[in-house]
Amino acid sequence: MMTFDAPWALGLLAVVALIAGWAAYTFRRRLARLALLGEADRIAALSTLDVRRRWQRLWLWTSSAACVVIALAQPVWGIDAELVQARGAAVVFVLDISASMDAEDVLPSRLERAKLTILDVLAAVDGSLVGFVPFAGDAFVQLPLTGDVDTARAFVQVANSASVTRQGTAIGQALGLARTVVDERVAGEALVVLMTDGEDHQGDPLGAVEGWADDGISLHVIGYGTPEGDVIPVRDADGVVTGVKADAAGSIVISQLDEPLLMALAEAGGGVYQRADTTGVEAVAVIEAVRDLELGALGARLRTVSVPRFGIFLALAVGLLAAEMIMSERRRDNASRSQ
To answer: In sequence order, what are the residues at sequence separation of 6 or more whose Cβ sits closer than 8 angstroms to the Cβ of residue 279?
Structure first.
């Protein structure tokens, strides 16, 4: 069954039909005017124009243009096997960007410390595949697996809690999305790095990592904050601190690191847990874990892909257009009489 990768291009067939229709209309009008001059057979005998060939040339041109349009629509049918070169080493950063990550019990803040850790890892593992899944009350894949470390670095640098419309800590949803990011290019194991304070989590985070070990995915968890907690600064549009976050009753909110949850997640995900430190030592463990993955990095696996067939229609278009160009509209018998 034929499908199209760019079906929008098929709309151009209407343009081809309009041009062909206009050409046919104007030619018919010309023939009608000639017919007013006398009998059709006598007029045809006096003219060097071969009407049948003119219609054939119009048909060839229309068919050629239609083939070009179909080729632009990128038709595909059938399947073929393709070897996909796998990079092997892959790391997906899952970053909490909720408001609680603005607390400053880890300097310069929980979120800024986490971003610095990611940037340190990216600088040390250039050449691996990296992905980025930020989350708060909702999670989204901002960067699928890519070898473009510069793009990953740019996304990480601009991540902030001000861009979040729904607060919360949807750890389970974020981990579920991180699992979908790991694709067939990963020949060996993959590492997911969860960076959060774990506070105010939603859903079932532990259930989200079930079966990861069977898929060769491990979870490294870094906790940001302290069990004692800290206030959450409130900033204006210019980033200036104007106060601290309070609840509906007016009491100051203290955000605390939920370390038991994060430890349980690391254990369920077959990885390790670390509490972040102002020295950034946690980045060293992540770098070492990624480099361990790189030892078995290269590989290839077979996948089936749809076969593009646009070349067939381009070849037909060229052939039809060539035939149209070499076909004469003049009658050979009249041409010979005039010599």
So the answer is: none
Distance, CA of 7 to CA of 15 (rounded, Å): 15
Q: How far out from the chain centre does Cα 200 lie?
A: 31
**Are residues 168 and 98 in contact, defined by beta-carbon separation less than 8 angstroms?**
yes
- The encoded tokens of residue 268 equal 């369920």
**C-beta of residue 176 within 8 angstroms of C-beta of residue 208:** yes
Pull the structure tokens for residue 258. 């939920």
Q: Say how far apart CA 155 and CA 137 lie, in whole Å.
A: 19
Residue 144 region by backbone torsions, left for phi larger than 0, else alpha for psi between -120 and 50, else beta: beta
DSSP letter string, 310-327: HHHHHHHHHHHHHHHHH-
Q: Which of 288, 294, 268 is nearest to 189 (CA)?
A: 294
List per-residue pLDDT tens for the chain, 339 residues long. 788 888 898 899 999 999 989 988 887 887 777 666 655 555 555 455 667 777 888 888 899 999 999 999 888 887 665 655 555 578 999 999 998 999 999 989 999 999 999 999 998 876 678 999 999 988 999 999 888 889 999 999 999 988 777 777 889 999 999 988 887 566 557 899 999 998 866 778 888 898 888 888 899 999 999 999 999 888 777 777 788 888 778 889 898 999 999 999 999 998 899 999 888 888 888 888 887 776 554 455 545 567 888 889 999 989 988 887 887 666 555 444 444
Q: Cβ–Cβ contacts within 10 Å for residue 168, how many?
A: 19
* Structure tokens given for 136: 């708060």
Going by C-beta distance under 8 Å and a sequence separation of 6 or more, which residues neighbour residue 320? 60, 61, 63, 64, 67
Distances (CA, A) of 170 to 128, 177, 207, 262: 27, 11, 13, 13
Q: Which amino acid is at 248?
A: A
Enumerate domains of the chain plus CATH numbers.
3-80+307-337 (no CATH), 88-297 (3.40.50.410)
